[in-house]
Hints:
By secondary structure, the protein is α+β, with helices and mostly antiparallel strands. It has 9 helices and 11 strands. It has helices spanning 3-22, 30-40, 42-63, 156-223, 228-263, 291-301, 303-325, 371-437, 443-478, and strands at residues 26-28, 68-74, 78-86, 92-112, 117-130, 135-151, 276-278, 329-342, 353-363, 480-481, 486-487.
Amino acid sequence: MTPYIRILLAFLLAGSASLELSAQPLTLTLDEVVQLAREQSIAGKQAATLQKTNYWKYRSFLADFKPQLSLDGSLPGFTRSFVEVQQPDGTVAFQPVSNNNSTLNLSLNQNIPLTGGSVFVQHQLQRFDNFLNRSTLYNGIPFAVGLSQPLFRFNLMKWDRQTEPLRYAESNQQYIEALEKVSLDAMSLYFDLLVAQVNLQIAETNRANNDTLFVIAQHKLTMGKISRNDLLQLQLSVLNARKDVASARQTAEVASLNLRSFLNLRNAASDQPRPLILGIPNQLTTFLIDIRQAVTEAFANRSDAIGFRRQLLEAQRDVEKARRENGINATLNAAFGLSNRGVRPIDVYTRPQDREFVEIQFTVPIMTWGRAQARTETARANQELALQTVEQSKRNFEQQIYTQVTLLDMLRQQVQLTAEADQIAQSRYQIAQDRFKLSDLSVTDLGIATQEKDRARRDAILALRDYWQSFYTLRLLTLYDFERNQKIN
């Protein structure tokens, strides 16, 4: 063998070895799949991103109630044009202007949630340059303090301080619920693949058994111990078993692709996807669930319970808003400070003069043709509807908890019964197969034993799926882990 052929064979063997290594099966349990889904699935990442958005929204809300320091102005404010100037005799003359009017304003503002008003502290400096006569003037406010206070008006800030913390707490619980929903979806896809793999295993076992039994039946036919009809029935079973294998394999591949996509399992373009082998989660932990505790935890943890309180507060807020805005609306604006002018910036700060400003703006509705009453009554009707809706939602919520707790206990017993039935059916089929080999059982009875074996195995897996679905649904509804007896954070 030449050296070139040896090198080529070495590369081929290395390539086949790497291919076998990349195609090694990946064994996963239900807990591992759920954890992978929470950490790296797109749905889990979307929930985390949404929670981050809600966090910064709440931080923005809190910042609105803290002092805000800002600098604004126009620098420069250059103008060159002709402006209309009315003369003493009533005629109009267009005079040329060329100036720069620059302003800087430094202000510190603070909202007052208790009253709905705001106070400010201000410092302002203005410079005016007239380029036509080459003169410069300064005007400024060295110091000013002011107040803007609504009178007899709706105070939105007071209500926001009650509703926004609830909304943020609601979003935190929604994030936990979203992760639990991811766990529930991962569990569903897990069992879709597990059921498909069990069906494929059943189909392959039946195909192998039918092939063996068909060979035995052919020998029995030559010996006269079986009829031609029974042999054809076994041959038909062989063909059906082969079709079942092909169908089950396709279903398993689709289920595997769906689970991989949900878990965001990526492979390099040159790698083959590793086959997934799922364990059967038949080790159930026995724990008692008190229905009253489940309901209490649900109303303490779920975002819906927080949402109920927020909805009632918002309905009460809307009633007060309608009542306040239908009456006298007034706003008190007041300011006190110092101001001055001069040809130099220092002149603004030399012996400044007092500067006062006070005004009350008001609106008094006189004739509204019943509009004010209609708005108020509409808000009260909406409040009553909100009370009724929340009450009905609470009852439906409690009913869901009762149903899931009862269902979980029943399904735990169902898992035990189907597991026992599966063992009995497997043993019965083995006995039936041995009896058929000894010519002590008909083909029809063997077919019945095969069907009962397959049905018992599928029922056991489906019972497990129903149990775990109820288990994760109860976690989602209560945000409480009854297995570990702790809240889900």
